[in-house]
Amino acid sequence: MGRLPARVPIHWDLAGHENGWGSPLMASMLFPAIATATYLGILAYDWGRIDFKAARAMSPSVARQVRLLVLLLMGVLQVTLLRAGMQGHAPSTSVMVLGISLFLVLLGNVLPRTEPNAWGGIRIPPTLENREVWKRTHRFYGKWLVVAGLLGLPACLLPEAAATFFLLPQVLVPTLSAVVYAYWIRNRLDQSPTHRPEPR
Prior knowledge:
This protein has a two-stranded antiparallel sheet with strand order 1-2. The protein has one domain (18-191). The protein is globular, with a radius of gyration of 20 Å. β1 (8-12) and β2 form a beta hairpin. The chain has 6 helices and 2 strands, in the order ββαααααα. The protein starts with 7 loop residues before the first strand and ends in a 9-residue tail after the last helix. The chain is mainly α. The chain has helices at residues 24-47, 60-87, 93-110, 125-129, 131-155, 160-191, and strands at 8-12, 18-22. The model has no long low-confidence stretch (mean pLDDT 78).
């Protein structure tokens, strides 16, 4: 068996050029460490006493599904980056677009069933203070994440450079649209003479 290189690439620029290196141990442990810290942070929030005006107890099964999706996404990124680093080339953007697209489709189907919480979703004043705003916003957000994910599947067939520039808008456009929608729906509800706040 050949010896492992002293250092391997762990970061690339948008053009696929190496611009960050680390030891093989760092490359193999980076995403597992991030995934573990993320998972423990989510559990800490779930076990804590953080509350919001509109908070409701979220179904444990929904919370588990969201946590599992985050771990699966981290796993896809870990395998893609580790394989690229060990083989000495840039990670496959097509594989990353595919993984993120599937993640968005699955997440979009779960989000409408979430409740106001301390760690996931569109967590801004309108959604955290009004459960109806939260539910409407996350139905809207979930639908457009599914659309973005489905659009990302054929994008996997694009050249690597084109696929790279698809990644950021794929996530940002639905998210920013949902933020704008949350403020719009709150103002609309505030101006409605028939709207009554949901009792706690």
